[in-house]
Structure formats: structure tokens, C-alpha cells
Design goal:
This protein is mostly helical and 68 residues long. It has one domain. The chain has two helices and no strands. The longest helix has 37 residues. Keywords: Membrane, Transmembrane, Transmembrane helix.
């Protein structure tokens, strides 16, 4: 289940990054800057969501152990 949620979140994040890059180029910023900002944001989000999902999975494993 965690993997599906992670995939959905990644799709949303990628869409947001493309929107930011397009907006940046629309406001006259050179396109590479928008792409670089997007890549940095993507890496930050990736690390954050990986750690969050790791914690969530560990917590769920603990609960399943206590129930059995």
C-alpha cells in the first residue's frame, strides 16, 4: 500500500515541478534555472517522502507484530 501512495505522491510532485519550471520560464527566468529548481525540489521531496514512508512501514510492522 505504501508503494502505491508513494507513486501517486511522486506523480503529483513531478507535475508540480513541471508547472514551476513552466511558470519560471513564463516570467522570463531562463528555462535551465526553472529545471534546476525543479530538480532540487524533486530531490528534497524524494528524500523526505522516502524517510516518511520508511517510518510508516516500520510503525506498521510493529503494530502487526503486537497483534499476532
Amino acid at each position: 500500500m505504501g508503494k502505491i501512495v508513494y507513486l501517486i505522491i511522486q506523480i503529483i510532485v513531478i507535475t508540480c515541478i513541471f508547472a514551476i519550471a513552466i511558470t519560471a520560464s513564463y516570467f522570463g527566468l531562463p528555462n535551465p534555472i526553472g529545471v534546476i529548481i525543479g530538480v532540487i525540489l524533486f530531490i528534497v521531496y524524494d528524500v523526505l517522502f522516502m524517510t516518511l514512508i520508511d517510518k510508516f512501514e516500520k510503525r506498521r510492522r510493529k503494530f502487526s507484530k503486537t497483534n499476532h
